[in-house]
Design a protein that fits this description.
CATH class: Alpha Beta
Number of domains: 1
CATH superfamily: Ribonuclease Z/Hydroxyacylglutathione hydrolase-like
Shape: globular
Largest sheet: 7 strands, mixed
Distance between the termini: 17 Å
Strand order of the largest sheet: 7-6-5-3-2-1-19
InterPro entries: RibonucZ/Hydroxyglut_hydro (IPR036866)
Number of helices: 4
Strand content: 25-35%
Protein name: Zn-dependent hydrolase
Amino acid sequence: MLLTYLDSNSWLIEIGGQRILLDPWLVDTLTFANQDWFFKGYRTQDHPIPENIDLILLSQGLEDHAHPPTLKQLDHNIPVVASPNAAKVVQQLGYTQITVLTHGETFTLNTSVEIKAFPGSPIGPTLVENGYLLKELASNLTIYYEPHGYHSPSLKAVAPIDVVITPLVDLTLPIVGSFIRGGKNALELAQWLQPQVMLPTAAGGDVKFTGFLTKFLQTKGNIEEFRSLLAKNNLSTQVIEAKSGDRIELQLQKKGVGV
């Protein structure tokens, strides 16, 4: 199993002989509703578009997960698995193979990788986006991904999970509180799932942010503090902090039974 970190929430997952591009923001700037004055993300250099992608996997329809400039550059014939909200984005861009996953539904990629959708981040009063469990069918190795730190208790039924990609520190705003939830939420998830490895997402990589909103953003906690939390709770989970462009080969202990 190989994971390449492409900044923010973007990952290339190589599992079961498949190359899955997750929540890609690889080119251009990141804004919400084209409001640069409010919030703008940028990098000094775009990431090259990865080759030989077997699947694009989208957890949310917001621009930092379904990034229109990146999706415009990707081959529109690549199959897409998406939350209902993210599916609307790729439908409007003309993608030809779109599978919508609602919570509890599964998709199997080329008889090699099973993808199951779980309840993820709430967006507004009624919409709940997706977290995903990926399982390599040949080995039963599993990865769970949720980019904002909202974890459904239904995950307990599929524990243990080998690899978890989720925020490990909090990002907060006045009045709103933590909108990216790491810390105690990530610790609780580790207690539920007993992962071999956890990797932080959402706040890292070679990106910078400007705009009105950034004046109020605050980070609570850090990776070393989270490692200490794991140790204090007698959890042997390894935390790997990937740098931009890192391609990490995970050495995992294989399980004898499926999830």
